[in-house]
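Hello, quick one for you while I still have it in my head. My current little project is about how a certain protein chain folds up. You're getting the sequence in one-letter code plus the fold written as tokens. Would you mind checking whether the tokens look sensible for this chain? Here's the protein in full, and shout if anything looks odd to you:
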Amino acid sequence: MDAVVKPWPKGSEPELSDHVRAAPQPVGDRPSREEAESAVRTLIAYIGDNPDREGLLDTPKRVVGAYEELYRGYKECPAEALERQFSETGKYDDFVLVKNIAFNSACEHHMMPFTGRAHIAYMPVDKVVGLSKLARLVDVYARRLQTQEHMNSQIVTAIEEILKPRGVAVMLEAEHTCMSLRGVEKPGALTVTTQFRGAFRDDQSQQLRFLSSVRGSQR
């Protein structure tokens, strides 16, 4: 029997948090591409190089193009990432775990990359999403200027508000280049954040199950 697919009912869902409901709105007038490329030329000159030398002539164009890719999350809606849901679960009543979801983000303090893995578990009630959609949700939030703590909270909130599961658990582990390549220069140091909602927050045994499942066969 084919699974029953229930699209997310736009407009009929109870109120969602602003960051879940839609992509962020630009603050003020957005600079033109030409202005952005000019800003990159200024930065090249600021660090002491010549933006007019052959190897750097097209660098501003490349940097702006890379920014459009790296920060595409500003144009994406988290709710749409979890829009397509399946209601045929066979009365499954345990948690669903997707772990080792690789992500790349950028520290909002230094605009330097941090990279890592996300581990997400939720306890479905009457609907689930395709496993790839959870990875998509991670990317929507990761592809913005972020702090790891804020990103962790945003992912948990989106899953809780849209899927309405009995519980949600999210762990992020990441290496921050603002710490490994500058400042204290400690490569290999990992920052770990966790957040639990619902049954995972209220029942310590569920937290332990989640943590042991993440760590047990981690590669």
In short: The CA atoms of residues 14 and 193 lie 28 Å apart.
